[in-house]
Amino acid sequence: MDLIKEQIAEAGSLGLFLKHILRKVFLEDWLIKLVALGVTLALWVGVTGLSTPTREQIPAVPITLRTAENLVVSNTPLETASIVVSGDKRRLGQIDRTALRFYLDLTGLGPGEHVVDLLPQADALDLPNGVKVEEISPAYVPVRLEAMQEKTVAVTIETRGELAEGFEEYSRTAAPASVRIRGPESAVRSLESVATERIDIGGSQSDVIIRQVRLNVASAKINLLDPYVDVTIRIGEERMERIYLVPLGDESGRRATVVLFGPRTPLLQTQPGNLTVTLEANENGEPAPKLTLPRNLEGKVEVRKLSL
User: Fold this and answer.
1) Range of the domain at 141
2) How far apart are CA 95 and CA 86, in angstroms?
3) H or E stretch including 285?
4) 246 and 220, same domain (yes or no)
């Protein structure tokens, strides 16, 4: 009977103990427990979320081509490609997109049409460990390689604007008159000249002289080895042609026919008496007319005809 009583007492004490434990766990300090549970859940979600494999697209990864020294790319190849990478979010967040670039080594290829596969170059991309390239678009780069060629071509001078009224252009020259170019054989072969940038001559009444004028070439594939020239444009009064009947300096009474071409004003101011025509022996020993110009016409006019 005493044994039964002891067992009942022990059972009562155990019940009270369990009741105390349950009360402690579920009813006391419940706010602290809820906060701890929330932190635990957040950490669990964060860790599992970051470790979950994720795919991400990276557009416009630059493509750099390297060719042999005697070859050049003559078509317009792709400049960028889009890639799709996979990995956990933390690793994807570490990608330095500015450092990504495809380097295509074409030094082993000869002239002709080629198609280069980008996929083998994916391993060389600067990506964090655990991140891999899943897709590349476009996956292939068409390339046309041509032999490099040099050539000397003429320089043409481009101008804009109208000269002042009553004036004309006498000549235009570039120094040097020809320059060297370099580029794909097909582009160089068809080019015969290169032009200067446009020079403004609007309203000019005298010579225009400009140093180091830039040359322009239509094709971006052609390099100008001599990119600048000096330009001289001679400008003066409008010219005219005038006929003079000049008496010979003897007693024969004969007159020589002189045709001069030059600026209008000095020619109109010049009279036959200002010109001198004499007879002198030519290389065959025969008498031939010789014209002496006044100082105001020296170097300014062209003698187009001199006859008896």
Assistant:
1) 54-147
2) 11
3) none
4) no
Closest CA to 58 of 107, 126, 150: 126
Q: Is residue 44 part of a domain?
A: no
| Angle at the Cα of 235 from the Cα atoms of 230 and 238, rounded to 5 degrees | 160
pLDDT band, very low/low/confident/very high, at 23 (cuts 50, 70, 90) = low
Alpha-carbon gap, residue 195 to 193, rounded angstroms: 7
Structure token digits, residue 196 = 């200067």
Structure tokens at 30: 């419940």
Closest by CA position to 238, among listed 170, 155, 183 = 170
Residue 186 included in any domain = yes
Determine phi and psi for 226, rounding to 5 degrees.
-125, 90
Phi, psi (deg, nearest 5) at residue 109: -100, 145
Strand pairing class (102-105; 54-66): parallel
Contacts of 205 (CB under 8 A, 6+ apart): 163, 164, 167, 235
Q: How many domains does the chain have?
A: 3
Mean pLDDT of 254-283: 93
DSSP-assigned states of every residue in 136-170: EES-EEEEEEEEEEEEEEEEE--EES-PPTTEEEE
Cβ–Cβ under 8 Å, residues 139 and 84: no
Please check whether residues 135 and 167 belong to one and the same domain. no
Please give the angle made by the CA atoms of 39, 40 and 41, to the nearest 5 degrees: 90
Cα gap 110→194, rounded to integer Å: 29
Which residues are within 8 A (CB) of 78 and not within 5 positions of it... i.e. 6 or more apart?
A: 63, 138, 141, 142
Least confident segment among 14-18, 42-46, 131-135, 202-206: 42-46
Asked if 101 contacts 81 with a C-beta cutoff of 8 angstroms, the reply is: no
